[in-house]
Write a structure and sequence with these properties.
CATH topology of the largest domain in chain B: MetI-like fold
Helix content of chain B: over 70%
CATH topology of the largest domain in chain A: Rossmann fold
Distance between the termini of chain A: 18 Å
Number of helices of chain B: 11
CATH class of the largest domain in chain B: Mainly Alpha
Number of strands of chain B: 0
Strand order of the largest sheet of chain A: 6-7-8-3-9-10
CATH architecture of the largest domain in chain A: 3-Layer(aba) Sandwich
Radius of gyration of chain B: 22 Å
Number of domains of chain B: 2
Mean pLDDT of chain B: 85
CATH architecture of the largest domain in chain B: Orthogonal Bundle
Oligomer: heterodimer
Largest interface: A-B, 22 and 22 residues
Number of helices of chain A: 8
Order of helices and strands of chain B: HHHHHHHHHHH
Mean pLDDT of chain A: 82
Strand content of chain B: under 5%
Low-confidence stretches of chain A: 1-14
CATH superfamily of the largest domain in chain A: P-loop containing nucleotide triphosphate hydrolases
Low-confidence stretches of chain B: 253-258
Structural class of chain A: alpha/beta
Helix content of chain A: 25-40%
CATH superfamily of the largest domain in chain B: MetI-like
């Protein structure tokens, strides 16, 4: 089958051709791990443009290269072919401040939550050079203000092992946001949480996005999550992944959990699900 | 600290006392000659009487141990960091290190004596060469097993290798490091005494050697008691430091206590 052009048959609006400035651009980028006979293609040639301030959810079957796209954008992986441009420059140049959160909250166990959250300030300029001076005052207040926003007020002095999984993931979001990144890369950040905590964190993330308007790229398995949070959803095929469908989601914001049970929302979910079932089916047939 | 801990400590102390009483009774009942096995009471009396003579030797042994230990820690940390950061260095250097560490150190002492003469220097070098290996292994293992996710978080922020080493690698390695310090300080002590026994005219090892050739068996045992005491003291000191600095790694015990 030919590579599909990004299109939309849902919610009406077509994907605009660069109305806002482009924040992330993958042009003809592919990733192959290993070499020669052992080479494993992780991502087929992919072209993807994400505008500044967009919230893009990336869904697809397991192992389809969703995380690879995220790692490309963050500069943790180099493209085998093609170009990845972030904030107007090739990704290795690091023109843009990036915040990142994984499924595993990865809090450093020897630091209090507050200090864990302040970690990016210790690394990223312009905060880095002021870190020694401001860590006990302005930066600490900043960390605690974020903690309050995610409902963890007063937990700054606790240590990671004293918090539950859901609380750690909230703190993880704070750490991804503290250095005011213009771009947020989230790799299944709520994957290990129970349904109710997850829904609560969706709303928190949505509020944070509305308040700060960073460009967000969210990788997720959860179709409801994608539809709840995303302003645009990209569906990927099975490994080696490519983008099958790219559509806007225009439900009004702030969205509520109740909305996820309305017919429009359910229809979107079913459409996404059909895409992924197809993609999985094709992959299984290919293997057999 | 809970009541349980105190009871545990009382039992430990009781066992030590019991050991000495059993030893004393055994010697008395069998009429053992003090040329073979002196009674602990004799040993303690000798220790007390000869303490002014023993003291400079104790200081000598402690000094060589600590100098060798500090140098060994320095060398071990540097080597461990290099090996732990780079997979290639880890694979390349490991066989050589294992080879070096498997040489019985008593066989190396004559070489040190040949190079530097008998006395303090070979003792320091023996202590160093015997104690640096556990430190290298622990630092290297700690660094090499750092979770990739931890590193990724910082890498995505544009952190340099040095940033990552400083903020994640080294703090994460601290529990490994302090665990190895406890072992290393005991090793350094063994190395120093070993070298003193073979080739020195100072130190507890030498005192024991001389006493044994004079058939002053109670003094030999007095030296042994001093060694045991010093060894335990060093171990305890580093255990306490370990507990203070890397308490976060043994948090499960704290959770039960609080």
């Amino acid at each position: 089958m030919m590579r599909m052009q990004p299109h939309s048959e849902f919610a009406g609006t077509p994907v605009p051709a660069a109305a806002a400035p482009i924040a992330i651009e993958l042009s003809e980028a592919s990733v192959t791990f290993g070499r020669g006979a052992r080479a494993v293609p992780a991502l087929s040639t992919t072209t993807l443009r994400i505008a500044d301030g967009e919230f893009v959810a990336l869904v697809g079957p397991s192992g389809c290269g969703k995380s690879t796209i995220l790692r490309l954008v963050s500069g943790l992986v180099q493209p085998s072919s093609g170009v990845v441009i972030v904030g107007g420059r090739e990704v290795a140049a690091r023109a843009m401040r990036v915040g990142m959160a994984f499924q595993n909250p990865t809090m450093l166990p020897w630091m209090s939550i507050e200090r864990n959250i302040m970690l990016p300030l210790k690394i990223v300029e312009p905060f880095r050079s002021q870190f020694r001076k401001l860590r006990k005052t302005e930066f600490r207040d900043k960390a605690n203000a974020l903690l309050e926003q995610v409902g963890l007020k007063g937990f700054g002095n606790r240590y990671p092992w004293q918090l539950s999984g859901g609380m750690l993931q909230r703190a993880n979001l704070c750490r991804a946001l503290i250095h005011e990144p213009r771009m947020l890369l989230l790799d299944e950040p709520f994957g290990a949480l129970d349904q109710f905590t997850r829904e609560e964190l969706w709303s928190i993330l949505q509020d944070l996005w509305i308040a700060h308007k960073p460009t967000v790229l969210l990788v997720t398995h959860d179709l409801r999550e994608a539809a709840f949070l995303g302003s645009r959803i990209c569906v990927m095929s099975a490994r080696p992944g490519r983008i099958l469908d790219d559509s806007r989601v225009d439900f009004v914001r702030p969205r509520t959990v109740a909305m996820t049970f309305e017919p429009d929302f359910v229809a979107l979910n079913q459409k996404l699900r059909a895409f992924i079932v197809d993609a999985r089916g094709a992959a299984t047939k290919g293997a057999a | 600290m809970s009541e349980f801990d105190y009871r545990q400590k009382a039992w430990s102390a009781g066992l030590i006392v019991l050991f000495f009483i059993a030893w004393e009774l055994f010697c008395l009942m069998t009429g053992m000659s003090d040329l073979v096995l002196p009674r602990p009471s004799q040993v303690f009396v000798t220790l007390f009487e000869k303490f002014p003579i023993l003291w400079p030797h104790i200081l000598q042994t402690l000094a060589t141990t600590m100098i060798g230990f500090i140098l060994g820690v320095g060398l071990g940390v540097v080597l461990g960091a290099i090996i732990g950061v780079s997979k290639t260095a880890y694979d390349t250097a490991y066989p050589l290190l294992v080879g070096f560490s498997s040489i019985p150190k008593v066989a190396v002492v004559p070489i040190f004596v040949l190079w530097f003469g008998s006395g303090t220097v070979p003792a320091v070098l023996t202590a160093l060469s015997i104690c640096f290996f556990p430190i290298v292994v622990n630092i290297a293992t700690g660094l090499a097993t750092t979770e990739p996710e931890l590193e990724d978080v910082l890498k995505a922020l544009g952190a340099s290798k040095l940033d990552i080493l400083w903020n994640v690698g080294l703090p994460r390695t601290m529990p490994f490091f302090f665990a190895s310090l406890k072992v290393a300080v005991s090793y350094a002590f063994v190395g120093a005494v070993l070298s003193e026994t073979v080739a020195s005219n100072r130190g507890i090892g030498n005192v024991m050697m001389t006493a044994s050739s004079n058939f002053n068996v109670p003094l030999v045992f007095a030296g042994l008691f001093v060694l045991a005491g010093l060894g335990v003291a060093l171990y305890v000191i580093f255990s306490v430091i370990e507990g203070r600095i890397t308490g976060w790694a043994t948090r499960k015990n704290d959770m039960i206590a609080t």
